Amino acid sequence: xxxxxxxxxxxxxxxxxxxxxxxxxxxxxxxxxxxxxxxxxxxxxxxxxxxxxxxxxxxxxxxxxxxxxxxxxxxxxxxxxxxxxxxxxxxxxxxxxxxxxxxxxxxxxxxxxxxxxxxxxxxxxxxxxxxxxxxxxxxxxxxxxxxxxxxxxxxxxxxxxxxxxxxxxxxxxxxxxxxxxxxxxxxxxxxxxxxxxxxxxxxxxxxxxxxxxxxxxxxxxxxxxxxxxxxxxxxxxxxxxxxxxxxxxxxxxxxxxxxxxxxxxxxxxxxxxxxxxxxxxxxxxxxxxxxxxxxxxxxxxxxxxxxxxxxxxxxxxxxxxxxxx
Length: 325
Prior knowledge:
By secondary structure, the protein is an alpha+beta fold. Helices cover about 55% and strands about 10% of the residues. It has a 4-stranded mixed beta sheet. A hairpin with a 7-residue loop joins strand 2 (about 65-70) and strand 3 (about 75-85). GO terms for molecular function: double-stranded DNA endonuclease activity.
């Protein structure tokens, strides 16, 4: 079908469904009864329906509507209507992507819960009836497996609630789980023996070991890093060379941090002393200026010079300067 013809079909569709009264009739007629009874059609409103993605350039959902639910709270239902003149095998997945985009925008508008988005496909192509399923799970090669994943809670690995004894039985991933469980809450020195034993039991590549040690040094609460590394080296002897290198690097880094901190403290102290000195000098200058002003007035009024000197604290030299000026 020529592009111009497709555009005409689409333009007519949008002209009609852009009328909220026509859209209300459409939804009241075509929504399944169990969904229709949850929608308050008196609150139906048109929303922008453009959800353009990097790999869907030029494609967007045709019409998007929002309305309140009949449950009496502030829940929202969105209806997304897609207009198609040609069958598309994975159309159900595309509708799902549009629905997720509508949910995302709902959150970006300041809402804290997801709305229910109901996708509807409006089809009027030459192939009849529509040849593909609109059940998005049918887009998978194994719909039964997909259903078992997407219709229940996703698997959760919560190491914060997992006993250490259970973690220690997790073979090659036990190191990661044990360290990340306690990185914020335990002294890593207390875990050194368990870490070393795991290293002996499940050898890991050198780059993983170095990453683990640096992570503990940077993010962990270790009361004595030197003792921690020494303990690891004593038990996990295969990593002694790496531990020596890491210890030297951490020591050099610590020295550098100490130097940098010393410079920063010195600069801060210098700024504070300079500010204090400036304040003192400014105060002294203000007092001197006030004394000169008072002395000038007293001399102008004929007060004896000795009295002026005693009253203002100015020297003979400063008083001479005032009389000359």
